[in-house]
Write a structure and sequence with these properties.
Elements lengths: L1 H6 L9 E2 L2 H16 L27 E2 L5 H7 L10
Antiparallel strand pairs: 1-2
Protein name: Periplasmic binding protein domain-containing protein
């Protein structure tokens, strides 16, 4: 199906849900600031991020699902893309 969409002129990304980069950056800044001030980085997950050697304490941001109904707000209004870039 990816090829058919690309052949029809659509740009295709097979990732269906993602984390907002601005949300991730904001959380990283909070974590670094906390550590720099002698505290600990906030974590909200101690079970699911397994790097193959151990479980890594993590902060998981809520994924954002982009649909045909919300893509303008999520991708264009937010400044990630212009309307022309998505055509």
């Amino acid at each position: 199906m990816k090829k058919e969409l690309e052949d029809a002129g659509y740009k295709v990304d097979l990732q269906y849900a993602s984390n907002d980069v601005q949300t991730q950056v904001s959380q990283v800044v909070k974590m670094v600031d906390s550590v720099m001030q002698g505290g600990e980085a906030e974590i909200n997950d101690t079970k699911s991020y397994d790097n193959g050697t151990e479980i890594i304490p993590s902060y998981l941001c809520d994924p954002v699902v982009v649909t045909v109904d919300n893509y303008k707000d999520m991708l264009i209004t937010s400044g990630y893309y212009t309307e022309d870039q998505l055509k």
